[in-house]
């Protein structure tokens, strides 16, 4: 890092930061939007016992998989931007491609499938990780409410539209 900063300045450390921030914002928005939507759909006609239901891990897993699928092209572009070879000496200007140039290059040389290269393992991982993450979150929230650590229904967990109103 020291060599890169001395050769190209401190901005070299932020290569790909803009596309990564855009990708991350899109992912997080889709992630929680999908989770809440799936959770409400799966809980419509089932009982109120979250601990005995598969709706939380299923909603979390589908939210993670859907969000990764939607934002994976931006992740491929980000990887292309951040994975460019950067000379360690300041022998000349850096031939650096931004996100738009990287995306255009990928589409021209490899086609649309390049933006989804490697998506299957990422979606499988996202499903498992997100299902367990939301299960842990909802389980912790349930225990906190039961014990009186947080405001909310203490006797039974009744989540869904309008459940936080008095």
Helix content: 55-70%
Number of strands: 0
Q: List low-pLDDT spans.
A: none
What's the main sheet like? none
Written as H for each helix and E for each strand, in order along the chain, the element string is HHHHH
How would you sum up the global shape? elongated
- The total count of helices amounts to 5
Q: Report the sheet-strand fraction.
A: under 5%
User: What is the distance, rounded to the nearest whole angstrom, between the alpha carbons of the first and last residues?
Assistant: 55 Å
Q: Briefly note the structural class of the backbone.
A: mainly alpha
Radius of gyration equals: 22 Å
Overall average residue pLDDT: 82
Can you describe this structure?
- The protein has 166 residues and is mostly helical.
- The chain is 62% helix and 0% strand.
- The chain contains five helices and no strands.
- It has helices at residues 2-8, 17-43, 55-82, 99-110, 119-147.
- Helix 2 runs antiparallel to helix 3 and helix 3 (55-82) packs across helix 5.
- The protein is elongated, with a radius of gyration of 22 Å.
- It starts with a helix and ends in a 19-residue tail after the last helix.
- The mean pLDDT is 82.
SSE layout and pairings?
Layout: H1 2-8, H2 17-43, H3 55-82, H4 99-110, H5 119-147
Helix pairs in contact: 2-3, 3-4, 3-5
Main features:
single chain; 166 residues; mainly alpha; 5 helices
